[in-house]
Amino acid sequence: MTFESSFEISGADRPRVMEVIPASYERRQWTPEAKDRIIAESMATRANVADIARRNDMLPQQLYAWRREARERMEAEDGPAFVPGG
After folding, report:
1. Which residue has the higher pLDDT, 6 or 85?
2. Of residues 20 and 86, which shows the higher confidence score?
3. Is residue 45 in a domain?
4. CB count, 10 Å around CB of 48?
5. 74 or 36, greater pLDDT
6. Is 60 domain-assigned?
7. Which H or E run includes 36?
8. Residue 8 pLDDT more than 60?
9. Nearest to 54 by CA among 63, 45, 66, 46
10. Which domain holds residue 65?
11. What does the angle CA 37 – CA 41 – CA 46 come to, to the nearest 5 degrees?
């Protein structure tokens, strides 16, 4: 069996990887209220973060990052949760 490609690989004509960005892609701006609502929904008992992210047209990774940032803000406001004894 032989395989023939439709391009030559030589010097400057070497094929390059091309990144395709959809024309409809634009950075989304979330209101603080919408962001807080989505985070609160994701913190509920037995909440499925992937489903919540999908319903809100976002990636689960973004929602996990928002949750982490919210926890860090809460810890900074409340102070340390554990104070070692001396």
Report:
1. 85
2. 20
3. yes
4. 12
5. 36
6. yes
7. helix 32-43
8. no
9. 63
10. 30-76
11. 175
Residue 34 in tokens = 């919408």
Dihedral sign, Cα of residue 44, residue 46, residue 50, residue 52 = negative
d(CA 43, CA 21) in angstroms, rounded, equals 32
Domain count, the chain: 1
Q: Is residue 2 part of a domain?
A: no
pLDDT tens for 60-70 read: 999 999 999 99
| Residue 84 belongs to some domain of the structure | no
Query: Can you tell me the distance from the alpha carbon of 67 to that of 50, in angstroms, rounded to the nearest whole number?
Result: 13
pLDDT of 76 strictly over 70: yes
Strand spans (E) along the chain = none
How would DSSP label each residue in 47-80? --HHHHHHHTTS-HHHHHHHHHHHHHHHHHHH--
